[in-house]
Amino acid sequence: MPIIAEQVSQLVEPVVRAAGFDLEDVVVTEVAERTDLTVVVDRDGGSDLDVLADLSRELSDLLDDAPSTVDAVYTLEVTSPGVDRPLTAARHWQRARGRKVAIEVAATDDDASPRRLTGRAGPVDDGGVLLVVNERGRIRTETVALDSVTTAVVQVDFGQPSVTELELCGLDPDEIRRRRSEA
C-alpha cells in the first residue's frame, strides 16, 4: 500500500506541534521499490541536529505503529527547510529576517510587468514585509505587500551585511554581532 503524504501530515502534525515546530511539508518520493518520506519542520530560532534526531525517532515510532504505514518500507528524513524554500507565509518571512531574499512582485496597473527585487527581509506586519535594499552602498527600504509577491526565496549570501542593514531588518545587537561573526 503506498504512503500518502496527506495521511502522514495528519498523523505527524500533532507530534511536530507538541515539539514546538510547524509542519512545513511532507514529501513522499517513490523510487523503484524504495519510498523516501521527508518531513520538513521549522520553528522560530531554527533547530539543531540533536533536536531533529529526537523528533525523527519519535515520528519513526509513530509511523511504525500507525495502521496506514505499519507495513510500509520507507526511509524517513526529518529536516528543516533549505535556502531554496519558497517564502509563502508570514512566518517564513519572519524567520528569514535579516537574510538576503529574491522576490518577484506581481504586475500592477502601473507596472506592465512583474518587478524583481533583491534585499534583506525585515519586519513583517499588516500583510507586508519591509525589504532592506543595498544598491552599491546606498541603503533604502521598501514595504512590499505579501499578497503581491508571486515568488520569493532566500538567497545564498556570500557578502557580509552592514550593521545598518541588519538594524533596519529589526535584529537586536546580539543577533547582529552573531551574524557578523559567522560571515
UniProtKB/TrEMBL annotation:
Its main location: cytoplasm. Keywords: Cytoplasm, Ribosome biogenesis. Residues 11-84 form the Ribosome maturation factor RimP N-terminal domain. It is found in: Cytoplasm. It comes from the Bacteria. The keyword Cytoplasm applies. The keyword Cytoplasm applies. Pfam families: RimP_N. CDD domains: YlxS_C (cd01734). Belongs to the RimP family. Required for maturation of 30S ribosomal subunits. NCBIfam families: PRK00092.2-2. This is Ribosome maturation factor RimP. It comes from Gordonia hankookensis. The lineage of its organism: Bacteria, Bacillati, Actinomycetota, Actinomycetes, Mycobacteriales. The gene is rimP.
